[in-house]
Amino acid sequence: MIRFALVFVFACAAARAPLTYPVPPHVDALVTDDVAFARFAGQLRDDLATDLARPSPREKDERFVIAMLDGLDGRWRDASAELARARRLERDPRAYAMYGLTIRVWAGAGGDPAAFRASLEREVAALPIDLVRSELEELRTMAQVFTPQVCAQLIAQAVGPNVHAGAIGFDDAQAVVFQHYAVKRLVPVAATIDAVLGAHGIAAKTDR
Question: What is the reported pTM?
Answer without folding.
Answer: 0.90
